[in-house]
Specification:
Blueprint: H1 30-54, E1 58-65, H2 71-78, E2 87-91, H3 97-100, H4 106-109, E3 118-122, H5 131-134, H6 140-159, E4 162-170, H7 173-185, H8 195-201, H9 204-218, E5 225-229, H10 233-250
Helix pairs in contact: 1-10, 2-10
């Protein structure tokens, strides 16, 4: 059984030591892999029901990754059997004028999970220590302060009952090339493609460096980062699903004690 420990970010972490094409969590043939993913999705639905019933704690899944790394696909497959009533997804785009007029964490506070809820962030506050760094919009000292504010923010969430799971979907430059080309060649995928994607791709090495620094600076005991090898879409989905199920089971969720008034009650 594969271990998550190798993929958990620590102080000596190096992103280039993680092979994006690795598939340690794929076992058996394709049929058994699909069956396992479906079983995990069903189990996740049951655990989400327990989380809702308990009504005290929350779970926040943060998904980060370069273009085409599969954030949308991960959400679609991992939560394929989960009730939409219990899962809320927020996609973070480039900050609006109103958001830029405030501190960079302002837009995050309004979309943190409620008690009993799973919330997924498709991109997140980490965009504010990636894009501005690569584009030179903030210097090293400003970046360091943002790392500290992120750690403070996540500590606030964990201390108030939120369990945070942070996944960086790690793909290779060649796999991104293949996926971008598919968006160009296949008419029904044109809507996914932007010429700006090619400009970002030219800064591949700079983004890899920015990711590595951000992951190391913000992977804490209560809110660690896990790097998910994501060249294989099925492996990506299985690894994230397993991590979520493992996390929710570790929370030891339980339904509240029954109201004593229900003892012997007969519905007529």
């Amino acid at each position: 059984m594969a271990s998550f420990s190798k993929y958990r970010v620590g102080s000596k972490f190096r992103l280039d030591r993680i092979d994006p094409a690795a598939t340690p969590f794929l076992e058996g043939g394709e049929d058994s892999q699909r069956e396992e993913l479906d079983a995990l999705a069903i189990e996740l639905d049951k655990l989400q029901n327990l989380l809702h019933a308990e009504g005290r704690r929350k779970l926040l899944l943060v998904l980060q990754g370069l273009d085409t790394s599969g954030k949308d696909g991960t959400i679609r497959w991992v939560f394929s059997r989960t009730s939409p009533l219990g899962v809320k997804v927020t996609a973070f785009k480039a900050p609006t004028e109103e958001e830029r007029a405030r501190d960079f964490l302002w837009r995050c506070h309004a979309v943190v999970p409620r008690a009993g809820e799973i919330t997924v962030w498709n991109r997140s506050h980490y965009e504010d220590v990636l894009v501005p760094v690569v584009e030179g919009a903030i210097d090293k000292e400003q970046t360091r302060r943002r790392y500290a504010r992120i750690n403070d923010f996540e500590r606030l969430l964990t201390e108030t009952g939120t369990v945070i799971v942070k996944c960086m979907l790690h793909i290779s430059k060649n796999e991104q090339r293949v996926r971008l080309q598919a968006r160009i060649d296949e008419a029904d995928k044109h809507w996914k493609f932007s010429l700006a994607d090619l400009e970002v791709r030219k800064k591949w090495d700079a983004y890899q460096a920015a990711y590595e620094k951000a992951l190391v600076a913000t992977s804490t005991e209560d809110a660690p980062w896990h790097v998910i090898p994501a060249d294989s879409k099925r492996h990506r989905n299985l690894m994230v699903a397993r991590l979520l199920v493992k996390t929710l089971k570790g929370m030891k969720l339980r339904v509240p004690d029954a109201d004593p008034a229900l003892n012997g009650l007969i519905v007529e």
